[in-house]
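User: I'm preparing a small set of examples for a lab meeting where we compare how different chains pack in three dimensions. I only have the primary sequence for this one, and I'd like the structure in token form so I can line it up with the others. Please keep the answer compact; I'll paste it straight into my notes.
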Amino acid sequence: MKTLRAIVLTLLVITLSGCITYRYEQAEALIPPGIEEPFIETRLAQINPPQVTEELPLIIFKALFIPLPEEPTITLLNGIASNITTSAYDVVALIGDKEALTYLEQIFGNLSYRLGERQLVVTSFNGDVDSEGEISLYSYPQTELSVALLEVSPGAYQRLLQGAELEELPQESSLTLPSGEGPTLLFASLGEPSSEDWFETIDGHPYRIQMVWPNSDAIREAGFFDTWRLTHYSALSDPGTTWEYLYAEDLIVRERIDYLYVKGIVPLESNTLSIAPNGGRYAIEATFIIP
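Assistant: Understood. Below is the structure token output for the 291-residue chain.
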């Protein structure tokens, strides 16, 4: 028993001696040191200052569209000329009687441009009239505004006065529309309501029936926007009447048959103005921005 105990004690001493001889220096030699990586250096690339292009000012202008009543008097024409002269309109378009427009053309002289027998533009902008009867106005050195006038004659209201039935009034006309891509202002006397106005006010109306008006639809499909529709909530609250007529003893026909269409122009506001003291025809004034 003593011999066995002596053997175990001897083995324990040998084992402990082996552990003690393993020093720190040996461990340091066996374990490789960690590789020191350099501090990551981040540098911002030099950014060139942005190139600032010339900023053109927003071009704001006012326009007036006057569809003249039939057979206007000299007194009325003089009043119209006086109002145009004293008002801050940049572009005024008139459609109506040939002799009446000739009279106004003589009053305004170099400020007037005759686009057709029944079409006249009065403006302080410099302009050029092309072979298509459109006028390019230079409202700013780098901005060109295309202006065109359009009249459908006889219009639906004229055919109504001549005895046509309501169902016969819508007729598709061959419209010559401006084809340019730049800012365009189209003064259009279509002589008929727009389909949008018609259907929006059909419920409970004394003479509305289900039918469409092709000319206003064609202009809209060509990419033009109706200024009045863009600047008013609805045809019910803001009808924008430009023609009214006592059709029968108990029926006055009131319709919006004259329009300011735009392309590449933003309308800000529009209103109607009575042309003659007794009503009948109404002008449209509007303010626009060329962005």
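A couple of notes for your slides: The mean pLDDT is 85. The chain has one domain: 61-290.

User: Perfect, thanks.
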